[in-house]
Amino acid sequence: MIGKWAARFFQMAELVSSWSKDPSTQVGAVITESNRIVSLGFNGYPHGISDSAETDSREMKLLKTLHAEENAILFAKRDLAGCEIWVTHFPCPNCAAKIIQTGIAVVHCPEQTEDFLSRWGDKIKVSQDMFTQANVKVDWLSLDDLKLLDK
Question: How far apart, in whole angstroms, are the C-alpha atoms of residue 62 and residue 36?
């Protein structure tokens, strides 16, 4: 069963993901330290860039979009060594590299669905290998436990 603080932080990541204007994939991230929120982030275009996610091609959207983890790291504006990050989707290799480089110690994310693995499995494997090499702990949150949070 997911603990009280874990539930709160994951629910916060889900809430923050809803702030994304991306019509296809909304991702949220919450960085914490000792049960305190350090920073939040969601995927989207940088400030000042025309918010054309609905009209840009998929390739253009991918080039312009900051990921939730990147936004949370950038908005923190502080040392993140020893912090934890709660994400609604497992980090891509580019975000994994940034998580490792900033010294974040633990990544909390939901177990991966078969659908997600079928689309992103290769990249997930790269990220997992990077986290293992860098001694970043990955805490897989049970999908069954997460479903109970919605009730």
Answer: 31
Kindly report, residue by residue over 21-45, the tens digit of the pLDDT.
Answer: 887 889 999 999 999 999 999 999 9
* 37: three-class secondary structure by DSSP: strand
Exposure pattern of 106-130 as b/e (b: 16+ CB <10 Å)?
bbbbbebeeeeeeeeeeebeebbeb
What three-state secondary structure class fits 108? strand
Write the DSSP string, 48-103: TS---TTTS-HHHHHHHPBPHHHHHHHHH-S--TT-EEEESSPPPHHHHHHHHHHT
Does the pLDDT value for residue 114 go beyond 70?
yes
| Residue 143 tokens, joined | 């999908």
Distance of CA 75 to the CA centre of its chain: 14
Contact assessment for residue 88 and residue 112, using Cβ atoms and an 8 Å cutoff = no
CA distances from 126 to 8, 91, 92, 104, 120 (A): 29, 10, 8, 18, 10
Instruction: List active site positions.
Output: 69
Phi, psi of 79 (to 5 degrees): -65, 130
